[in-house]
């Protein structure tokens, strides 16, 4: 007997862009990002590039009638909820896409002109044609170099980025996101400008040149969120958050600069259940091994971070900690994400220097614990001496095993793997006993 089907109906997003044979940018990056964001990706390829992580080695522009045939085929069959454009290459292609303006909902225009490798992807005489397409857009997303071409302003600070955004809105765009990756300020500063408001989004820079596909991924992520019905500000903030994580946890592929991790958030979400189950397993093992000697009245705080954790809500912990009772150690409640405060914060700070660190356990701190740490010769950081919890990433080294948080009467044991954390806490308890 045949099984009953159970179809789903995700929103449809169309990307009109070039193909990247290296898979990190262009249509390939767009479709990966759209799918990871819970939408159905469709495409119209404008050009085929011979490209890898080291550069663009060739490009073939498709005939206009072939580009039109792809767009027509998509709109004839799908209820498109959002559209993004990437590499359009020539004036004719830009004008062709503009001809569909009344059929392009939630249009996000990424005015691709130069690849991250420095290779030019837009003919010089096509630059002026972008103005008419921008006038039809819900959002335009230039970087600093593209902003200079489009507006004549080469933004070097937040104020000039605002001016760029205002110029683009004056051209007719509903909004402009001036990306700050190429603007020489300490933090990446993205500026979202509408005719009513200006919003600045700041996030730390990542020390990497593996940013291939960053613009494609951001614009696709925003278009995907718009297809789900998010308002523009929320869609942009979500896209910026995704890109920040995608750059930090980039893909080390190829011989040149790596690509951003297009599916990083989807993979992180997929790991949440496994992470929570692992924390439960650590807690069960510590109770079974009776680590009471390292438990004080505040209890054990056992935490586990997802593989690409960036925030405390990406860290699982026992809600209410593991308490010492007359009948032994007992978890107060179940494991949930965001249940830990200080221990999760310290683990995330440590991960800034050692991203592979995934687990931590808050134990008691007193002279006996400190004596045991010295006896075990574990690498230990004293937070008071070394600058406080906010500077853990500056003090931590490859051999660091524990953090002394005297103000909170805590010892934080760190590990990359769950079995290692379990054995370290058990060893510490046995050394004290």
In short:
The chain has 433 residues and is α/β, with parallel strands linked by helices.
Key attributes of the depicted protein:
433 residues; EC 2.7.1.49; UDP-N-acetylmuramoyl-L-alanine:D-glutamate ligase; ATP-binding; Aldolase_II/adducin_N_sf; L-fuculose-1-phosphate Aldolase; alpha/beta; seven-stranded mixed sheet; kinase; ATP binding
Report mean pLDDT, rounded to a whole number: 93
Which strand-content bin applies to the residues?
Answer: 15-25%
Helix content: 25-40%
| Unreliable residue stretches | none
Determine the CATH superfamily of the largest domain. Ribokinase
Instruction: Return the CATH topology of the largest domain.
Output: UDP-N-acetylmuramoyl-L-alanine:D-glutamate ligase
CATH class of the largest domain: Alpha Beta
Indicate the CATH architecture of the largest domain: 3-Layer(aba) Sandwich
Write the topology of this structure.
Layout: E1 12-20, H1 26-36, E2 40-52, E3 55-61, H2 64-77, E4 80-85, H3 91-98, E5 107-109, H4 130-134, E6 139-140, H5 144-151, H6 158-170, E7 175-178, E8 188-194, E9 198-203, H7 214-227, H8 232-248, H9 264-270, H10 272-288, E10 301-305, E11 315-318, E12 322-325, E13 328-331, E14 335-337, H11 342-353, E15 359-364, H12 367-376, E16 379-382, H13 392-395, E17 400-405, E18 410-415, H14 418-432
Parallel strand pairs: 1-2, 1-4, 4-5, 5-6, 16-17
Antiparallel strand pairs: 2-3, 7-8, 8-9, 10-11, 10-15, 11-14, 12-13, 15-18, 17-18
Helix pairs in contact: 1-7, 5-6, 7-8, 10-14
């Amino acid at each position: 007997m045949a099984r009953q089907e159970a179809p789903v109906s995700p929103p449809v997003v169309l990307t009109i862009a070039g193909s990247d044979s290296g898979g990190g940018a262009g249509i390939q990056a767009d479709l990966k990002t759209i799918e990871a964001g819970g939408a159905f990706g469709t495409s119209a390829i404008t050009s085929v590039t011979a490209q890898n992580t080291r550069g663009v080695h060739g490009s073939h522009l498709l005939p206009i009638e072939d580009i039109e045939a792809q767009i027509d085929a998509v709109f004839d069959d799908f209820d498109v909820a959002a559209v993004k454009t990437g590499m359009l290459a020539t004036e004719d292609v830009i004008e062709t896409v503009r001809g569909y303006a009344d059929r392009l909902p939630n249009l996000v225009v990424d005015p691709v002109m130069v690849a991250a490798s420095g290779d030019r992807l837009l003919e010089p005489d096509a630059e002026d044609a972008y103005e008419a397409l921008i006038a039809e857009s819900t959002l335009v997303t230039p970087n600093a170099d593209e902003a200079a071409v489009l507006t004549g302003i080469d933004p070097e600070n937040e104020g000039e980025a605002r001016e760029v955004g205002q110029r683009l809105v004056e051209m007719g765009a509903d909004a402009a996101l001036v990306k700050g990756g190429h603007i020489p300020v300490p933090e990446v500063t993205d500026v979202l400008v509408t005719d009513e408001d200006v919003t600045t989004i700041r996030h730390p820079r990542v020390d990497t040149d593996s940013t291939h596909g960053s613009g494609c991924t951001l614009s696709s992520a925003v278009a995907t969120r718009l297809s789900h019905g998010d308002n523009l500000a929320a869609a942009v903030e979500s896209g910026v958050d995704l890109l920040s994580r995608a750059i930090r946890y980039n893909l080390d592929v190829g011989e040149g600069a790596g690509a951003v991790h297009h599916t990083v958030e989807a993979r992180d979400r997929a790991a949440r259940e496994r992470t929570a189950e692992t924390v439960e397993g650590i807690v069960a093992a510590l109770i079974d091994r009776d680590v009471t000697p390292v438990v004080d009245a505040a209890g054990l705080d056992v935490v586990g971070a997802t593989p690409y954790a960036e925030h405390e809500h990406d860290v699982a912990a026992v809600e209410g900690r593991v308490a010492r009772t007359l009948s032994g150690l007992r978890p107060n409640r179940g494991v949930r994400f965001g249940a830990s405060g200080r221990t999760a914060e310290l683990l995330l700070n440590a991960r800034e220097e050692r991203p592979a660190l995934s687990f931590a356990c808050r134990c008691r701190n007193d002279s006996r614990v400190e004596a045991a740490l010295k006896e075990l010769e574990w690498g230990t950081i004293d937070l008071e001496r070394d600058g406080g919890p906010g500077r853990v990433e500056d003090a931590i080294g490859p051999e660091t095993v524990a953090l002394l948080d005297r103000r909170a009467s805590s010892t934080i044991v760190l590990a990359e793997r769950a079995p290692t954390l379990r054995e370290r806490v058990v060893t510490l308890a046995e050394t004290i006993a």
